[in-house]
Amino acid sequence: MIYEYNGNLEENERINQVTNEITSKYSFISIDNAIKASTLEGKIDKEVTLTDKLNRLYNIMLVSSNNRDIVMLIFKDYLDLLKNNNIDNKYYYLSQSINEYLYNYSDFPIISEF
């Protein structure tokens, strides 16, 4: 997915840019959900970090949490980022809870709980 600098943009411009970045990668995400995910994301005003990427993927899954099939597709990319970057923090533990959600063991997790 594209993650472009957007710290210089007004809020509406930033939301539009992030929405376009999301829908260009995940064409199956509705525009409404892409906008919702975009509004949850903060500005990217420095180099894009792993945290920026994981947060965006989490936000997409959160707003799509009523559709486990979509969450599963996004979750694969989330896991790839974790695996390729050998991270062991709240995002790792969050992935375990998302996995439990996907298997109907729990509700979709809230990131602030980690």
The biggest sheet amounts to: none
Radius of gyration: 14 Å
Order of helices and strands: HHHHH
Fraction of residues in helix: 55-70%
Distance between the termini: 25 Å
Structural class by SSE content = mainly alpha
Mean pLDDT: 94
Number of helices: 5
Number of strands: 0
Shape field: globular
Strand content: under 5%
Low-confidence stretches: none
Structure in words:
This protein has 114 residues and is mostly helical. It is 61% helix and 0% strand. The chain has five helices and no strands. It has helices at residues 11-25, 31-40, 50-63, 68-85, 90-102. Helix 2 packs across helix 3 and helix 4 (68-85) runs antiparallel to helix 5. The longest helix has 18 residues, at 68-85. The radius of gyration is 14 Å and the shape is globular. The two termini are 25 Å apart.
Short description:
This protein is mainly alpha-helical and 114 residues long.
List keywords for this structure.
mainly alpha, 114 residues, globular
SSE blueprint and pairings:
Elements: H1 11-25, H2 31-40, H3 50-63, H4 68-85, H5 90-102
Helix pairs in contact: 1-2, 2-3, 3-4, 4-5
